[in-house]
Amino acid sequence: MKTSYQYKIKPTKQQAEKIDKTLEMLRHQYNYLLAQRFDWYEMNRCPIDRCPLICHIPELKEQPNYYNQKASLVKLKIDRPWYKEIHSQALQEVPKRVELAFDRWVKGDVNGKKSGRPRFKGEGQYKTFTYTQFKQHHFVNNKITLSKIGDVKVIVHRPIPDGFKIKTVSITKKADGYYVTLCLEDATVPTIKPDFNPESITGIDVGLKEFLTTSEGETVAIPQHYRKSQKRLRVIQKRVSRRKKGSKRRQKAVKQLGKQHKKVADKRKDFHFKTANNLLKKYDVIAAEDLDVKGLARTRLAKSVLDAGWSSFLSILTNKAENAGLLVVPVKASGTSQDCSNCGVKVPKKLHERWHNCPHCGYSLDRDHNAAINIKNRAVGHSVLKAKSLLSSSRIVLEAYTYCEAEV
């Protein structure tokens, strides 16, 4: 099992300067390697490499990839000796990031979905570097030893669980300081709980009236963290816009604005974690809609959709379920609000109609509650859930058979 713990660190003034300098040099290298990719792509994007007329065709350059760009880092340290101040693992991560960003644009992900053209990172936009290998004895007594930086104080607000080993360490600069993220792994922890109950299942329907509604009719109120903070954000944003670009006072206002945005994001994240934890305490299986949040964010409800953070919540819920040995089942979202959960007949409703009244069977209940029941019903036939149910039933039969043999 893998999990991540994030702690705040308190570097000294000299250590903070080293971290900032490292991030800035990595940013320059990221932009340089990305420019290499763009140059090659613009010169070789056409598949035609022959001309029937007598003309000069330039020789094709070698295509930049992760391996030859990684190999070029050796020459980089010779030409620019100050890059020797950066740990080799943190530097080798840069071509990997460039490879991922470029491939998502050109080839797409495993589902074929492509991202936008990668952007060059401006000053302060490169915020994280990673040590891909880490020794356990470098994190003791609330201090972590970071190569090329030194021993840094860590605020350990919760201990690392017994048996877990640190695999990677990432240093991140945020609006309110510096953080370290530890990627932990313990191969002995089972992926599914021994007492997993596939019958303990609920469906959840996320919305803008209530954050979510379960198939049992329970609701969780939507907090609207961003909308409640808009007045304060507007004041600070005006302060930023009125100050001269490049001035110290503007930098101070920008930092204050970043802290306020982070405060909103932290509140939303805390709400998501607590809501996911409460659901997983009650149920072993949770069925949720497989939503296209990016598409919904292009509508006139974009601010409310992004403020709710459905995508982030479902990601947190899935990860916490995996760590707890439980299951989150994604189901197709289309028609869950329109179909009657009692008879299955489609009952068209506009968005402002918040109550489901079926003219065929007379079933009447809240629209979101009806959708949650449909989501649960669709998940019951899920192949993974069936497999877990068969395993659970076979385990019960085996235990009963063993018990009978012992009695005989």
TrEMBL record:
The keyword RNA-binding does not apply. Signal peptide: none annotated. It comes from the Bacteria. Keywords: DNA recombination, DNA-binding, Metal-binding, Transposition, Zinc. Residues 189-298 form the Probable transposase IS891/IS1136/IS1341 domain. Pfam families: Cas12f1-like_TNB, HTH_OrfB_IS605, OrfB_IS605. Residues 310-375 form the Cas12f1-like TNB domain. Transmembrane segments: none annotated. Residues 1-45 form the Transposase putative helix-turn-helix domain. InterPro entries: Cas12f1-like_TNB, Transposase, Transposase_put_HTH. NCBIfam families: guided_TnpB. In the C-terminal section; belongs to the transposase 35 family. This is Transposase. The lineage of its organism: Bacteria, Bacillati, Cyanobacteriota, Cyanophyceae, Nostocales.
